[in-house]
Amino acid sequence: MASAEKQSLGDTIRNSQIWKSVFRHPAPVDRRNRIVVMLTNFFLHLHPVSMKKQGIALSFTWCMGGVTFFLFLVETVTGVLLMFYYRPTLEWAYNDILSLRDTTSLGILREIHRWGAHAMVITVWLHMYRVFLTGSYKPPREFNWVIGVFLLLFTLLLSFTGYLLPWDQLAIWAITVGSNMARATPFLGHEGPGAQLLTIGGIDMITNASDARFGLLGARFVGEETLNRFYVLHCIAIPLAVAFLLAIHFWRVRKDGGISGPL
Amino acid sequence: MADQNRPSVAEILAKCRQDDGGAAAASSSPPAAADSAPPKKAAAGNGDGPAKKPSTPQVKPGERPSIADMMAMARGEKSAEAETPADKTEAAKPVTAGKASATAASTKKPEPAKATTKNERLDTASILAAARGGAKPGPVSKAEYTKQTGKPAVPEKPAKPLPPMPAKPAYAKPPAPRPRAEGESRRFFLVSMLGALVGSALAIGFTSLAAVGGLWSLAVARFMFPNVLTEPPSRFKVGFPGDFPFGMVEEKFKAQFGVWVVNYEYNGERQIFALSTVCTHLGCTPNWLDAEQKYKCPCHGSGFYKDGINFEGPAPRPLERYAIRIGDDGQLEVDKSRKFQEEMGQWADPASFVTV
User: Which residues of B touch A106 (CB under 8 A)?
Assistant: First the structure.
């Protein structure tokens, strides 16, 4: 009796206007509807309707691209949650990090965020390594490799900018050392080769208050300006760029002959 | 037809060379067979080119003939063939000499019976009349054509067979009402629900996903409620009752806690109470004007007496009190988590004041 009630309830739901307005097509139980669902679903339409069995073999793809994207989602979700508590100021940054660990419920969120960041760098490299080994960078996929290189760059920049946010001694001096490399940028770093050539009327245009490092830190030395700047880069600017490139990356996987494998 | 049979320049040259050299040596080859004609043709075709014909015999056996000679020889052959159509080694060519025969052929084609005009020149009208064979000249309408011939002018199109409508697929059919099985019971329902949750690997996977997702949602919801606050506490001590002489409005707690501690009288009773510094009009913070002995809101001009009763401006009701009591150590303790409103008679609550 109860089962019959449940069955009819399911049919009532599936035949309702609400359900049909959300799910335009029947369940993917036959070949036609499997194709239709893939084509009309927002989340699935990036994927090919069908693919070679070998293309999804774990031994072939390692699923490293998928794992990387999963980690990106983990970083996004945990990062947004951490933003509810973290204040990028000299007064509060370090205290909020300690508070997230010590007093906040679900304090493991920050650890997940940090572990996920480390894992994401590793999986990006493994993904790149797999693509290289399987020759999946060759035409017509060569431009997707270029996009992937930019995604790798942005992943590393996300790690770099996020490293400063705890605002402990490790963070401050790591960013100090890391940004010191920008001093030696050719022409754009005040200690770099060619910087002395950029003078107007005997006045140096590239100084420690106008070079690439200054633009990166927003100051001569790592301070609250740098903290705020890296916070915005870490939470807004770079994730937006990564999301944009990810969409193109996935879309081109489909357009350039499907997921890996010989064409 | 004529183009195919017209000899190419190479063939003409080869023919001429064989005429010069040993005609006897190449008697068996096809060109040689054709070569047997020229002497005869040359003799027969005198009337066509009397000036050029004599040039052919002038070519000496050891010399190569000039181009002009070759052309003359070729023309001589053609004219000879035109006069002897029976000779089928080469078909008739559309040259000037064969014009009459060509006209005859064209006349012959539509009306073979009228062969009488073989050598006459025919005008276009007579040719067309002969071609129509007595039928009505000029265009014929479809109705006339049908009347004359009994056949429709436009052939009827054969009926195109339409493919049958495809059978309705199973998913498009309305679900048939399921007959209620005998075994359906509460136990059956529980077992089937259990099977739906953990009956297969897929079910276990989705069940686990839902469970983990639900737990994470709960944990994240808990995460949003901080355990440590950096804001001022809602319960705080303000000092001993003796620190507040009668008529005093203590302002030093206003900035941090939003409270005036007042020793004044209410309903003829001397009390120490804690007034909220939030205007009851729109929530601004009034100021205590000691010279005028009133609280005055800078936003819209609401005014309150020292005991908190409103008397001017738009404020609709008195300021609110917070709970106050004497703590264990004898100090006054304000609790901002409880509010008392005069217009609701709550100021009579002993928790809202301390009697002095």
Answer: 219-220, 222-223
pLDDT band at B283 (very low <50, low <70, confident <90, very high): very high
Residue with tokens 């017209």: B6
Q: What is the pLDDT of residue B18?
A: 80
B299-337 per-position pLDDT tens digit: 999 999 999 999 999 999 999 999 999 999 999 999 999
- For the stretch B334-339, contacts whose Cβ atoms lie closer than 8 Å and that sit 24 or more positions apart, written own/partner, are B334/B235, B334/B236, B334/B237, B334/B238, B334/B253, B334/B257, B334/B259, B334/B261, B334/B274, B335/B234, B335/B235, B336/B234, B336/B235, B336/B257, B336/B258, B336/B259, B337/B234, B337/B235, B339/B276
Nearest to B141 by CA among B154, B127, B158, B125: B154
Q: Does B75 have pLDDT greater than 70?
A: yes
Q: Which of A3, A104, A106 sits opposite B184 (nearest CB)?
A: A3
pLDDT value for B222? 93
Distance from CA of B6 to the nearest CA of A (A): 58
Predicted ipTM?
0.79
Residue in B with minimal Cα distance to A26: B171
Mutate to test the interface with A, among B168, B171, B215 (most CBs of A within 10 A): B171
> Which residue in chain A has the smallest CA separation from B182?
A1
Nearest-10 Cα torsion for A141, A127, A124, A242: 30
pLDDT digits (tens, 9 = 90+) for B124-156: 877 777 777 666 556 777 887 888 777 777 777
For A106, B184, B220, the CA distances from B224, given in Å and listed in that order, are 9, 45, 6
Q: What percent of chain B has pLDDT over 90?
A: 39
- Which of B223, B224, B228, B231 to probe by mutation at the A interface, max A CB count within 10 Å? B223
Q: Which of A243, A236, A254, A74 is nearest to A150 (CA)?
A: A243
Widest CA span in chain B: 165
Tokens representing B289 are 């004007």
Mark out the alpha helices in B84-185 (DSSP H runs): 99-108, 124-132, 142-149
- Nearest one of A63, A34, A28 to A48, comparing CA atoms: A34
Terminal alpha carbon distance of chain B: 140
Per-residue buried b or exposed e for B59-75, using 16+ beta carbons within 10 Å of the residue's own CB = beeeeebeeebbebbbb
